[in-house]
Give the backbone structure.
Amino acid sequence: MTGAFHSTRPGAVCRSRRSLIVLIFSSLLAQAFFPPASLRADETVSPVLSAAGDPQVPPAAELSAGDAIILGVVEGITEFLPVSSTGHLIIASHALGLESDAPLLAADGRPLWASEPSAKNPAGEPLTLKLAADAYTVIIQAGAIAAVMLLYWRQLLSMLAGLLGRDAAGLRLLRNIILAVFPAASLGLAMHKLKLDERLFSIEAVVIALVLGALLMLAAERWRRGRLPEAHATASAARRDLSELTVRQSLGIGLMQCLALWPGTSRSMVTMVGGYFCGLSPARAAEFSFLVGLPTLGGAALLKGVSTGPAMIAVFGWPHVILGIVAAGVSAALAVRFLVSYLGRHGLGVFAIYRVILALVLVGWFLV
């Protein structure tokens, strides 16, 4: 199957058109996931929804257009590079002053809730700037999803044709993606219900994951280069179609993705390393990580949008959500194009070094 990066080299006009398409599609996808709060306004809904939906009520906290763009760009670039989006978003949120745990109030003095009081949780969970920012960075992943869908539309159409019985290779690719998503998705849902993911998170945990991930990448790169002394082996790995992965190999990549549930590990990194061990070239391993990321990121964005999206919009306002999604979409498209091109020539080594540098920055900024 031919990826989006093996077509003829586009000119400046073509790149501009693609960027425009990403902008438009990102906005459409955002509205599909999270319709504007003004469409939800109703006197009978909760205070959070009313605050989000009333155009006369200003956002509960300030998020400038520049902040929205910064968060969108950081999310879009780091989501698909094997460098840990979590570590970068920690730094960005801290630098932008989005870490306050003080409860937020609407303009009319009503409390805003991340989880409203209920029989099971009488105290509820007050909405804070930090919680809203965390939800924001997950929801704007919709832009990154749109970018990959546009760049890899041929593969998506092939999988759809496979479901209709018209493309055997597309059906095998869909099978491989499902197998690669299932283990981490199942474990992630279980951890979310038990709130284990929240307990795992800390700056120390992210630093450890960054360093161990760097060591894993260097080991995988050394292993790959040791197995490719012959030009024939390199060419064979580069030509291997993603639909040729076996059930066992796809499931193995899925099991490796479970490591990414530890904050700071990087989903794309473990997927690429798993692809290495299955005989994929660096570029092909990256492309598989992009496709596997579609249901993973889409599910996370949808769940967060349903659970916290309205409250987050009440805090930041709908225009800045759209702006962040668009920024994430454009930056993700550029990052994906760069990564496939770079990996084809150099491999993962430089990203391992970068992860160690990022770990040192986190230690110096937060732990010293």
Summary: Residues 13-367 form one domain.
